[in-house]
Write a structure and sequence with these properties.
The chain is of the alpha+beta class. It is 38% helix and 32% strand. The chain has one domain (3-92): Alpha-Beta Plaits. The chain has three helices and four strands; from the N terminus they run E-H-E-E-H-H-E. Pfam families: DUF1330 (PF07045).
Length: 95
């Protein structure tokens, strides 16, 4: 089943987070991920508001998790740590 990688982010260091984003996109694509939404307009209805919301679709939960744990994505994450507050969840779709 396909899966969605959903991140809610508050960027605290634009420069460092920009380095993360530059590396994260290719890593996500390498593991079959494709962006569905990235930083677009949103309406916060419940919970903690984060200014940046990102959704990527992967072929499976396993592919999304493999991407997250990959050397390529972890290299990208080395720039995001300390540059953002974030939550990230992987959710299997019903399709």
């Amino acid at each position: 089943m396909p899966a969605l990688w959903i991140a809610h982010v508050t960027v605290t260091d634009e420069e460092a987070y920009g380095r993360y984003a530059k590396l994260a996109g290719p890593a996500i694509a390498k593991y079959g991920g494709a962006f569905v939404a990235r930083g677009g307009r949103y309406v916060q209805l419940e919970g903690k508001e984060r200014a940046r919301n990102v959704v990527a679709q992967f072929p499976s939960v396993e592919a999304a998790e493999e991407c997250y744990r990959s050397p390529e994505y972890q290299e990208a994450m080395s720039h995001a740590r300390g540059a953002a507050e974030r939550e990230l969840v992987i959710v299997e779709t019903t399709e």
